[in-house]
Amino acid sequence: MEFKDYYKIMGVARDATQDEIKRAYRKLARKYHPDVSKEKDAEARFKEVGEAYEVLKDAEKRAAYDQLGANWQQGQEFRPPPDWNTGFEFSGGGFTGGDAEGFSDFFESLFGRGGGRARTGGPFGGDFGGRRGGFSAHGEDRHARVQIELEDSYRGATRTITLRVPEFDPQGRVTTREHTLNVTIPKGIRAGQHLRLAGQGDAGVGQGAAGDLYLEVEFAPHRLYRVEDRDVYLDVPIAPWEAALGASVKVPTPGGTVEMKVPPGSSGGRKMRLKGRGIPSATPGDFYVVLQIVVPQATTAAERALYEKLAAEFKAFNPRDKLGV
Amino acid sequence: MADKDTLSQLTGVILEEQVELTLAEISRSCAVHAEYIIELVEEGVLAPVGREPRGWRFSGGQVRRAGRALRLQRDLGVNLAGVALALDLLDELDAMRARLNAIVGD
After folding, report:
1. Is B98 an 8 Å CB contact of chain A?
2. Which sequence spans correspond to the domains of chain B?
3. A2-50, pLDDT tens digit by residue?
4. Is B72 on the interface with A (CB under 8 A)?
5. Measured between CA atoms, how close is A157 to chain B, in angstroms?
6. Which residues of B touch A198 (CB under 8 A)?
7. Helix B34-42 and helix B60-76: axis angle, to 10°?
8. Which pLDDT band, with edges at 50, 70 and 90, does A313 fall under?
9. CATH number of the domain that A92 lies in?
C-alpha cells in the first residue's frame, strides 16, 4: 500500500500546532466539499483531507503517526513496522470517529477500521443507513453519474450503464462488483437532473426494502451545440453578403435540419430564436442561432478588386463609430 | 454477471419533475428526523407547496437540496442560516456557469 503524508495533504508543517491544523482543515474542507467544489477530483480530495485530519487532530493518533518518522514520501510503498501498535490501543476500539468507511488501506493498517459506518450524531439520527444486526433496515441509496448525448434528450434513448459497486466479502474486505443496467433515458431530460431507479440501490437488511439508484445526467460536450437548461445554442457562420442582403440558410438542430431566414443587415453576434426547438418538454426550450460573419480571404487580383470596390463604395461607413475615433 | 441481452429494461422517473414527497417521505429519504426538515423549511432552504406540515409536498429536487444542506452542516460546521446562504449562492453560481457555458462553450 502507499504511504500517505498527512502533513503534505493538509499543507502544514510537521510541527504545526493543533490550531493551525484545524484552520488548514476547515479551509480545505470548504474548498473540496463535493457539494461545493466543481473540481474533478473533489470527492477524493475531500476524503483524503478528512482522513488526514482524523489522524492529525487527535493527539494520540498524531503521536503514533509521527513515530513512523519523517523520511516517508507520499505515495511510497509502505508496510507497517512489525512493532507497530505496541503502546497504542487502536484496533477495534471504535475510537475512530467520522465516516471512516471511505478511509484508505493505509489508514486502516495503522488505526483499524474504527467507527465503521458512523452516520449518526447531532440532529441526524434515525434508524436508517445503519448496518446493525437484528434490525430491518432500508438499503442505502446509490448515486452515479451518466453521460448522454444531447440528441438522446430530444428523442429518448436506451443506455447500458456499468457501475462499480463496493461490497464486503465474507472476510469483511471491500471488493467491487460490476453492476450492469439497461436504462431508458426519457425524452426531455436535462443536465443536472436525476433519474431515480427504484430498488436498484443496496439491498436492504432483514425485511428492509432495497435502496434506490440515482443517476445524475450530464451531456457529453457537443461538437456543435451548447446547452443552458432547456435552451440550445449554435454558432452559425454566414457570408458577409448573406448578412447584408439577407438569406435563407440551412441550420442543423438536434431534432433535424431546419431552414432559417437571416434578415438583411444582420450583424455578427446577432441571436435568433427558433421557438420551441430546444429540449422537448411540456414547455419546450428554444433553439438559438448566433450569427458569425465569416470573411472570405481575398487571394486573387479579382477578389482584391472586389473588396477595394466595396471600400470605395462604403467610404462613409465607420465600423468604429462608437469608439469615438 | 448476467449477459447483456438478458438484462431487463429499467425505466426511471425524473426526480426533479415526476416525484413529489410528503414530509414523512422526504425525512426517510434523507435519513433525518422530520423536525430537521421542518427547520429547513423555516429557514427557507426548502420550499414545499401546501400550508400545514401535514399537507406539505416536496418536489424531488428538494430531496437533493436537503441532502446538500445536511452534508454542508455536518462536514463544514455551518449553521442553518449559513447553509441557506451557501445554497442560494451555489444556485446562483450554477446558473452563471451554465450561462457562461452557453455563451462561450467549454
Report:
1. yes
2. 16-104
3. 888 999 999 999 999 999 999 999 999 999 998 888 888 888 899 999 9
4. yes
5. 11
6. 12-13
7. 90
8. very high
9. 1.10.287.110
Q: How many CB atoms are located within 10 Å of the residue A85 CB? A: 16
- Please tell me the pTM assigned to this model: 0.71
Which of A201, A219, A237 terminates a domain? The answer is A219
Range of the domain at A232: 225-313
Domain count, chain A: 3
Place of cell 476524503: A47
CATH number of B16-104: 1.10.1660.10
CATH number of the structural domain spanning residue A237 = 2.60.260.20
User: ipTM beyond 0.90?
Assistant: no
Do residue A160 and residue B1 have CB atoms under 8 angstroms apart?
Answer: no
Output A258-267 pairs: Cβ under 8 A, ≥24 positions apart: A260/A236, A260/A289, A262/A238, A262/A291, A266/A238, A266/A291, A267/A243, A267/A291, A267/A293
A30 in contact with B at a CB cutoff of 8 Å?
A: yes
B10:A125 CB<8 A: no
Q: Give the B window 18-57 contacts with A, CB below 8 Å.
A: 19, 27-29, 31-33, 35-36, 39
Structural domain includes residue A193:
yes
Interface contact flag, A193 B97, Cβ < 8 Å: no
B84 near A CB under 8 A: no
- Contact between B16 and A125 using a beta-carbon 8 Å cutoff: no
A30 and A62 inside one domain = yes
Cβ(A223)–Cβ(A149) below 8 Å: no
CB A253 within 8 A of CB A274: yes
Contact A196 B33 (CB under 8 A): no
Does any domain span residue A84? yes
